[in-house]
Amino acid sequence: MLSTAEKIRVLRAAPLFVATPEAILAEVAALLEEVEVDAGQTIFEEGQYGNAMYIIASGRVRVHRGGRTLAYVEKYNVFGEMSLLDPEPRSASVTAEEQTALLRLARAPFYELMAHRNEVAFGVIQMLCQYQRARLTEMVDDYHYIQQVAQLTAAAAAVEAGVYEPESIASVTERADPLGQLARVFQRMIREVYAREQRLQRQVQELRIEVDHARQARQVSQITGTDYFRQLRGKAGDLRKLLKGEEEEGSPD
User: Fold this and answer.
1) Could you report the per-residue pLDDT of 30-39, keeping only the tens digit for each?
2) N or C: which terminal CB in the chain sees fewer CB atoms within 10 Å?
3) Cβ neighbours of residue 50 closer than 8 Å, sequence gap 6 or more
4) Residue 55: enclosing H or E segment and its boundaries?
């Protein structure tokens, strides 16, 4: 069991209560319920209706959705805070990564506290502003990410069509994440495929020339190997001898 002083120390470290005076933290501490969670135990599931938020007094939890880890939440941080204000289904599941001690704050008593303590309401407003600012940043990052995934997809389609433009994904290769690594590998592959295709085209051209030469040589061989050609060659030889003899007879002594 945590003492009131220990609960206040945890609250003071939580972002939601960073601007809350000590006296009000004591009132909040009185509303907290201690929850012990074993490693691997699910605290709540995605889709469940929430009516409380949790502050981690010790330990660590994993926020996940559909098998994908969204975040890890460490000591003195909060999760499930939107359920204090919005009774909608949980957007993700949370599971303890290790033995974890939580302080649970339910919605109903928290509403009563906000009704007569403006400082707590001010802390909630700050938290919402930070949440929205972070979400906007994530949305911008997601938009750029999707755009660059589209660039990679377009480059792949271009390569399939025989168009090699490695510089079309230059901006994606500058990323320091796995997408950037994939783009760099793909860019290198584009250049290698282009170079290989150029070599293949040269080899095909050289082979075509060799085939033409071989075809010509075969045609010549076929012609010179006929009896008709041999007869012509013999007649040409006789004609050269005759002409040579006439030249010798007509030359002056």
Assistant:
1) 999 999 999 9
2) C
3) 44, 80, 82, 83, 87, 88, 89, 90
4) strand 52-58
What does the alpha-carbon distance between residue 107 and residue 185 come to, in Å, rounded to a whole number? Answer: 51
Provide the 10 A C-beta neighbour count for residue 52: 19
Q: What is the pLDDT of residues 186-242, one digit of tens each?
A: 888 888 888 888 888 888 787 777 777 777 767 666 666 677 666 766 666 666 666
Residue 167, both tokens:
């510089």
* CATH superfamily of the domain spanning 4-116: Jelly Rolls (2.60.120.10)
Tell me the C-alpha distance between 55 and 32, whole Å. Answer: 9
Q: Which residue has the tokens 């928290």?
A: 110
Question: What tokens appear for 88 in the block?
Answer: 């909608």
Joined together, the tokens standing for residue 1 give 């069991």
Q: Where in the chain is the domain with CATH 2.60.120.10?
A: 4-116
